[in-house]
Design goal:
The structure is a single chain. With 277 residues, the protein is an alpha/beta fold. The chain has a single domain, classed as YjeF N-terminal domain (Rossmann fold, 3-Layer(aba) Sandwich), CATH 3.40.50. It is built from nine helices and nine strands. A seven-stranded parallel sheet has the order 4-3-2-5-6-7-8. A two-stranded antiparallel ribbon has the order 1-9. The longest helix is centred in the first third of the chain and has 16 residues.
Amino acid sequence: MNPPFLRVLRGGELDDHASADRRADARSRPADDRGRRHPIAGADGKRRPSGGGRARSDSGNNGGDGFVVARTLLQRGVDVSVFLIGQVSDVRGDARVNLDILGRLGVTVVEIADGQAWELHLSEIRDCNLIVDAIFGTGLNAPVRGMIESVITDVNASGIPVVSIDLPSGLSADSCDPIGESIEAGTTVTLAAPKLPLVLPPAENRAGDIVIADIGIPADVIDALDGPRVELLTRSGIRELITPRTPDSHKGDYGHVLLVAGSRGKTRLSRPWRPST
């Protein structure tokens, strides 16, 4: 079966299922093991930072993934800096668990609560080799404004390679058109299944190379999501639909196709297409 493309609708069903799965995962495996197995850890192996890396997170679920990535890179010997877009006091749930682990490892998390704080630390991005974008995930449905818009603009202008988690921050999983300023990623590690803006223009230009990471969400949970179904059309998928032809068959045995052309003067578009020889 072709892999489905997911579109987040009516409250972010995928986020709800992913959060539930992560909570179950948290009960069954130690936090440090989850860090080693995080899908983004090996996603950009060709550009693995030999010097320093920067992880930019917010206080939600995607921010929690950013904290896990920061810990993973730290355990691999990378000099990591973590910038929290918001305040530590606002971090809750699994994100807070992973934030506290960073604290116990001696990592200082810099709070970026306003534009002045961002300007103060802006020069630090010039010293890093890689930026991990974990500001927003699939829940964004309005253009970013203010300080966060400035952060995204400055990251894009830095010229430093960016790996985004799930979606480049600023894109909406509900739209293939950019809704405002967004991260221009070199690689996007999308969780469970690709999202429409990652594979359809014009938003796909912001995503870079796409890595689909299995985070343990069962296939039946993905199939049960509401909203329109979109599947990737592949050569193997088409082959399954074609009935084998017998030597004594002719074109009338396999049905007929009605081609309806467009406006006046465009009827030639209905002519059968033949590959050039």
